[in-house]
Amino acid sequence: MASTVAVIGILAASATLVAGLSAVGAAAIHSQRLAGAADTSALAAADTVTGLAAGEPCDRAADLAATAGAAVAVCDIDGFVVTVTVTARFGVFATSATARAGPPPG
After folding, report:
1. Pairing status of strand 71-78 against strand 93-101
2. Environment class of residue 21 by beta-carbon count within 10 Å: exposed (0-12), middle (13-18) or buried (19+)?
């Protein structure tokens, strides 16, 4: 009887640990996807600013962010340098990532 209770306790603890680690893993994946969306959006906007691509830089960034399931919250253009902040939902949490693209300083 005592071993049955111990086994049930170990299984419950293991299930709780697996659920917690799964949530942490999902959050890490979401974070990396959002960072990738910010990177590609900033690069596309910078290409548009420098004339390598046609269109409006911030609109191009918004289009690419939308394909990744994110929205552009901030699109700041300073010369040829573009800073883009994208946001997305992760469960009940609002998350964001920022990326900057343009020519090297100097």
Report:
1. unpaired
2. exposed
| pTM assigned to the model | 0.82
With a CB cutoff of 8 Å and minimum separation 6, the contacts of 41 are 60, 61, 62, 64, 65, 70, 72, 84, 86, 99
Residue 67, both tokens: 């394909």
Q: CA 71 to CA 26: how far, in whole Å?
A: 20
Span 84-103, pLDDT tens digits: 999 999 989 999 999 999 98
DSSP code, position 99: E
Helix axes 57-67, 2-50, angle to 10 degrees: 160
Taking only the tens place, the pLDDT of each residue in 45-80 is: 999 999 888 999 999 999 999 999 999 999 999 999
Collapse the DSSP code of 106 into the 3-class scheme (helix H, G, I; strand E, B; otherwise coil) and give the result. coil
Give the number of other CB atoms < 10 A from CB of residue 48.
Answer: 20
